[in-house]
Specification:
Length: 146
């Protein structure tokens, strides 16, 4: 990764949104994956991050954790009318054969008078999902159904 690392980049995909997310740590890469997914939908700079939500997830494998992480936000948008623009993953740990994530995310209630949605993300997918630990950090690849 370059000295001034980019947080994420979008890849060409015929129907959905596909992206790579980067981080010096796995936690940072997960934060940037969430940021990438939200920026498919909305300019996250328009979100005032005044509400906080703690998120704790458990998954059988690291791909499942990434899938659950992205899916959790889509659930919170649908069920609680929340949108997020800032993400802090405190820990990702492997214990007893499972992966645990603890995070605090920041956002607000959706306000259609201020929030302009570009593309609807319907679901996270396992399609082409990858989690790689490279010499200089982590890279995650994800595709979301739009």
């Amino acid at each position: 990764m370059p000295d001034d690392p980019k947080k994420y980049e979008y890849l060409d995909h015929t129907a959905d949104a596909k992206f790579l997310a980067y981080g010096k740590t796995l936690e940072e890469a997960f934060e940037n994956a969430a940021l990438a997914m939200f920026n498919v939908m909305i300019n996250t700079n328009t979100i005032s991050n005044t509400l906080l939500q703690d998120i704790d997830l458990v998954a059988e494998d690291i791909d499942g954790l990434l899938f659950d992480w992205l899916s959790e936000f889509l659930f919170l948008m649908d069920a609680e009318n929340l949108i997020f623009g800032d993400f802090k993953v405190h820990t990702i740990e492997q214990k007893g054969g499972k992966f645990y994530l603890s995070a605090t995310v920041y956002g607000e209630l959706i306000d259609l008078s201020r929030h302009v949605f570009d593309t609807e993300v319907k679901a996270a997918t396992y399609n082409d999902m990858q989690v790689k630990n490279l010499a200089d950090g982590w890279v995650l690849q994800a595709t979301v159904d739009t």
